[in-house]
Amino acid sequence: MSLFIKMALLQTLLASTLLCRAQQPAPSLPVPASIYLKLDSAEAIFLQNNFLLLAQKYTVDAAKALVIQAKLYPNPNFNFATTIYNQDSKKIFPSPFSSNGEAISGISQLIILAGKRNKQVQLAQANVHLNEYQFFDLIRTLKYTLRTDFFNIYYLQQSAKAYDAEIKALSQIADAFELQRDQKYIAEKEVLRIKALLYSFQSEYNDLQNQINDIESELRQVLQIKPYNYIIPVPDSEAIRNLNPLKYQLATLLDTAYTHRTDLLIAKENTNINQLNYKYQQALAVPDVVANISYDQQGSYVHNLSMAGFAIDLPFFNRNQGNIKAAKHGIDAAASTQKSVAASVEESVFRALQKALDQDKLFKAIDPKFSLDFDRLMKEVLINYQKRNISILEFLDFYDSFKQNVLQLNSIQFNRVSAFEDINFFTANNFFN
User: To bridge 414 with a disulfide, which of 155, 166, 235, 330 should be the other Cys (CB 3.0-4.6 Å)?
Assistant: First the structure.
């Protein structure tokens, strides 16, 4: 085969390969699978799957293992030495049991004084409690995110449905008006006004979908659900409608918060840890004793010498003064932080209840029939405009009012539910489900 033929075959093969690649469809995202999810099911999935909770649980287990370590006593120390070279017998490493051999051995044990071991155990146990409180605080925070995102997605999706319905209606009007414009039955400027409104709705709808997708992404991360799943919340509408901010007294909410708020428990435990550390640093000022027993075969004034003794540091210079002073300041800092957290508890619970009362009052002031009447009127306006019974300005004004009405109603409902979720979060208890 000639070189020319080989080159021609190679060019043909390359061209066919490029053509096949060009004909392949462009890569796209997988079609999302819709997951209809109730709130209790979402919380169950969260508690089972969330990796942050799993990591924090391992941290608690690690802290518990350190309690075991703190309870252990120091190991005894054994030492042994023998002759390397005996100049008299000219032997390397002579047997220590021979007449010219030498062996020195000893065993020692560190004796911890001033209760240092018990104080270390108490510190380790307090750190276990601290890690447990941090675990429950993580649950509280992530559950608040989950529940808030759940309701936020639901009400935004309701707004998106209204946008979608109106965009479809406007698209039909725009298509019909274009035909009428071509037949000179309608002015060009009216078609442009309708299209401008349509494009405005489409742009706002796209922004709304992006907002929903962002919150969906956050919720999927909390639940550890695959990215190609689209969550459709299914709330209990009856339970939401019956929410009542006056169901519990402020005193009850505050008592629960003081008892269960994990950030307050963390602040209290930090104060306790600093107090335990202060006592431990004081104990470190007391030196420990090393008791020892030794044996010397023939290197002393008598053969086979056995001795017992002890060793202790003399605390002339270092009495742990700096660490003790730092620990004392640590107590003051932790106590101040605890007071700050305690002060914020009352204010946050009061503000959450106040917000729930305001949002509930606003929600109940709306006529339940208002939304249905507005939807019905919107359809009539659309029909009347198509029949040319109303002007384009009236039609555009009503459409804008309809859009604002849908957004405001869904925003009011979400803000009301969110206010009740704030009460749950700030009291660390599910008063309102």
Answer: 155
